[in-house]
Specification:
The chain is an alpha+beta fold and 75 residues long. It is 32% helix and 15% strand. The protein contains 2 helices and 3 strands, in the order αβαββ. Strand 2 and strand 3 form a beta hairpin. The longest helix has 17 residues. 9% of the residues are buried.
């Protein structure tokens, strides 16, 4: 079986980063900011109840605006 390279240029690191982000957001109901890399802080949705954030983010959150909160990437 012949393997053909992609016909258009792709940054494989970017493809892996996007897959990591999609898996993380699906599993933990968080968002990733622009240029996020695994291990960096994530965006915590404003709609996430305080009781849930205390469990998911025991080290606390960094609140930039009432609607923009960051927390350590959940494990």
């Amino acid at each position: 079986m012949l393997m053909y390279p992609m016909s258009t240029g792709r940054n494989f690191d970017e493809v892996l980063r996007v897959l990591d982000s999609m898996q993380l957001t699906a599993k933990h109901a968080v968002s990733t900011p622009v240029n996020w890399k695994p291990g960096e802080d994530v965006v915590v949705p404003a709609a996430m109840p305080e009781e849930v954030t205390k469990v998911k983010f025991p080290d606390g959150l960094k609140t930039v605006k009432p609607y923009l909160r960051f927390g350590a990437q959940p494990k």
